[in-house]
Amino acid sequence: MSNVVVLDNGGGFIKAGQGGERNPAVVIPNCLYRPLTSKKFLHPTATFSSSPDDLTSAAIRRPIDRGYLINPDLQRDIWSHLFTSLLHVTPSSSSLLLTEPLFSLPSIQRSTDELVFEDFGFSSLVVADSPSLVHLYETSCRPCGLVSEAQCSLVVDCGFSFTQAAPVFQNITLNYGVKRIDLGGKALTNYLKELVSYRAINVMDETLLMDDVKEKLCFVSLDVERDLQFARKHGKDNLFRCTYVLPDGVTHTKGYVKDPEAAKRHLALTDGTSPSEAIETKNETDQLGVMDKTAERKRVDLTKNEFDLTNERFLVPEMIFQPADLGMNEAGLAECIVRAVNACHPYLHPVLYQSIILTGGSTLFPRFVERLEKDLRPLVPDDYQVNITTQEDPILGVWRGGSLLASSPDYELMRVTKAEYEELGSARCRRRFFR
Amino acid sequence: MDDDNSNALRRMSTRTRKVAPKMAAALGSSDNRSQAALARLEALENDNAGIEARSKGTKRKTRQAKALENARKAPRSFLELLHEANLESLPPHVPSYLRAAVGPPSSTSRRHFCSVCGFSAKYTCVTCGMRFCSCRCQNIHNDTRCMKFVA
């Protein structure tokens, strides 16, 4: 059997590696970037947060918009760099397992097939959708769990381009039940960018920097009204205020959180604690930090570019839970899940509510699960249990499922070979993937 | 509001009468605001908000270069492709990209946050409809991004 390249072609990151392995060999951003010092667009070598280059005001080109491949030329560029210099595979002797979002348009499918077979010349191709791969991975992780015994689950994918809830039954995604919110990590970053640009410093050009800010500082609030009250306080009473230092290009080329300890203070506020208790815990931390605080206050110098975040930290991820606040005419994540379940057969409802699997990079915000459970519980009938499972690495979950599929015996049966593609064309071959 | 005239002693807000004709038209159609909101949401999916304009047209192009550029398949946006696919023509039971959208929320209640400071906002800007929470924020809003019916 020839080797299989598993490629999870996400809007934010490409996850790629050999089928059968546990982790992808390469995780790179799915884009080209152009720093200010360069005239050409460059290939990112690793994730941006770990690369040493100066990424100030880097322009970005992405081949994927709203989850779908719209710029095949750019994607060809990125893939050829990926296959030749990062993965070191020869496409003509290997098979490709590619993920594609659900409901891909025929024109996009055609250009994807052209890319795979004609430009790169892969010997065969399997196109899979991400919910079924996540389901596959979860069933193999817990062979005795409910997900694998009932053979069905509800995969909630909060990705870079969109958020969707997809019921999966016996490894096949029930496409009539899939519900999508058009908000993902990219929209959240852009929203944060907008807020900071209006309130503090213009960072409209700094997408990569704001990505970092979002990942480090944003969290999901369990009680927005209460947290807004807290965020209003002045000085050190404010648990949420946090300073982010922008890179200056001389001593450091990366931005950083000024006081990482203070950034975690919001975790002291749990759902159950009343405000008075929360203030007590806060006082303790304050007493510990009094000495540091005075020293730190002297340290503030105006040459440094920095900005404070308070309520932005939880109002940004809040968008996923209530897009209506932003003026979007869309329901929030909890309601999205309920609608996805209601679209399925009533026999499946209790099992689906008990086997919700969270995946995707945007679920990494602290307290995401707790908030979802809190929102979801009142919407679900009392008799049903709600059980939300998280993956240990939500970004790689889809890829791991793909890796399992590539090493399973079914893989041989599913694939479309290059000869078949040349004989039958794109549309006929696609029917094999039940799409 | 017409029956207010019967009770002359009662003091009523005269605000509705002072509405500028331009604003009345805009409120009636509700097009400008919804268009502005749509444009804003569209901007959230944008990759390089500030840079796009700068990268264009640094060098004057020859006719040949222009022709070459046109000949190359220009990448189209996803919405264009979606429009081209004509998914509306499918029968209603076929699941498609459009039918997978989650749809409007069940409760119409919407929380409002101050466009200046982010806290919950009680007041609406009479000119552009954005929210603010206090007099201070209103002044900042008026000075900075009150849209004043640009559309």
Automatic annotation (TrEMBL), chain A:
Gene3D superfamilies registered for this protein in UniProt: 3.30.420.40, Actin, Chain A, domain 2, Actin, Chain A, domain 4
Location(s), subcellular: Nucleus
UniProt keywords, alphabetically: Nucleus
GO biological process: actin filament-based process
Predominant location category: nucleus
Gene Ontology cellular component list: nucleus
A Pfam family reported for this protein in Swiss-Prot or TrEMBL: Actin
UniProt keyword Cell membrane present: no
Top-level taxon of origin: Eukaryota
Family recorded in the similarity comment: Belongs to the actin family. ARP6 subfamily.
Protein name: Actin-related protein 6
Record PANTHER family: ACTIN
TrEMBL record, chain B:
GO molecular function terms listed in the Swiss-Prot or TrEMBL record: zinc ion binding
Record-linked InterPro entries: Vps71/ZNHIT1, Znf_HIT
Domain HIT-type: 114-146
Cellular component aspect of the GO annotation: nucleus
GO biological process terms held by the UniProt record: chromatin remodeling
Stretches assigned to coiled coil: 34-61
Pfam annotation, one family: zf-HIT
Keyword Methyltransferase found: no
Superkingdom of this protein's organism: Eukaryota
Region (Disordered): 1-31
PROSITE patterns per the UniProt record, alphabetical: ZF_HIT (PS51083)
UniProt KW keywords: Coiled coil, Metal-binding, Zinc, Zinc-finger
Residues in the signal sequence: none
Protein name: HIT-type domain-containing protein
Lineage: Eukaryota, Viridiplantae, Streptophyta, Embryophyta, Tracheophyta
